[in-house]
Write the structure tokens for this entry.
Amino acid sequence: MAGTPNGSPTSSAVAGPLSARRSYLNARSIYTQLDIRRVAQLDLSLAVVAEMARQLNEAAQEYEALAVDDRLSARDRARARLWVGTALSKNGKNDYAARLMTTAIREFEGIGEPEDWSVAHQKLALAHRGAGNLPKALRLIDLARSTAVTDAPMQRVRLETAYGHILLSDRATVDDGLVILDRAAREAAQHGLAHQLRSIEGIQRTHQGNVRLPLPRRSGSSRVSVKQQVITDEQWRHARTIWDYHQMHHDLRHCDVAIGLGSHDLGVARAAVELYRAGWFPLLVFSGATSPTTATRFPRGEAVHYREHAVELGVPAEAILLEPNATNTGQNIGLSRQVLADSGVQPASVLLISKPYMERRAYATARKVWPEVEVVCASEPLELDDYVSSIGDPRLVVDMLVGDLQRVIEYPKLGYAIEQSVPGEVHDAYQALLRAGFDSRLLSP
């Protein structure tokens, strides 16, 4: 729902769009007989109700007429223009909707309405999501969330719903989107926001209906096809052998500090949050700049986005230090060590939090770069199939497993890490996958 203009009549008996429509029509009839100018505001409310009832073309036409209706205030005319875009966006006309919303934003700026300006950016973000421009959608929803001037439950739920909806559109952030939508649903239920709750539940149902996990079958067909690329069951067995080798299987124990190693995977931040909540460390460093694979997803840097996500999920900001310059694992550890030293922290033990298949390389690098500390490794507790589901590209994941194993083997020769023993079955799996062409993440010659 776009929202009800100030001054619209309300009734405790209004239980949904049809009930609301009857109430507004009755009021409109009385106002018309009395020649009261607030008829236009009631027309605006009726258009909102039509939008709620999914009569989107009717709502858009009514909004468009009201956007130039002199009986309305400048603010309500700008709102009507914004809501034309909202109705069009819900009807799939996202590019045109975005242009109208941008015009409304300029009008809100001109009349000094910061609350509506923030709401407009939220709706514009959803239009760009619908048009498939996720980077722009994320930038706009971040702007809307950071500039919101009210902490009212209704606006909090709307912002969180929009944010979660956008995150669901990228396989790499689906889990975070679901968490945020669950939180928004709980708040909507707590405050009796029935329409918002139905909207959230509709988004969740649509997502569940669209999910098609590209995983290998455990029986029947012997292969899985993703983007016309085939991975056999034998190759998946090799991948699981390497996946298991990459994980250090350390027992968790309390450490003086933790370091979250930046990457494309927001799961590192989620794991850090859970480990902090469980009390395994009191202080956390997020480390990482950007790379060609993360510049679009994390334009302000991996560490910055990790930190924002962790704070959003409840980690106190004062418990997190930032290292925003590292571009490789050695720098992640070395520069984080310097950040800690600059803060007067000299830890005896460090919990390294990484992607699941990066634990061994992180451990070998830390033992080389920072040999005097005790190193414990941790990551999201995921099986390979679950991790593939979260990334959404099985072949890419296998390529990354192979690439990281090559680095475990080769980096000690270059002085970047200590040597790790590679069991025969792991080496055989590595060679088999190389022969099969899983080589897009290998080191350049």
Q: What stands out?
A: Residues 1-25, 30-37, 211-229 have pLDDT under 50 and may be disordered. The radius of gyration is 26 Å. The beta strands are 223-226, 229-232, 257-261, 284-287, 320-323, 349-353, 374-378. The longest helix spans residues 394-414.
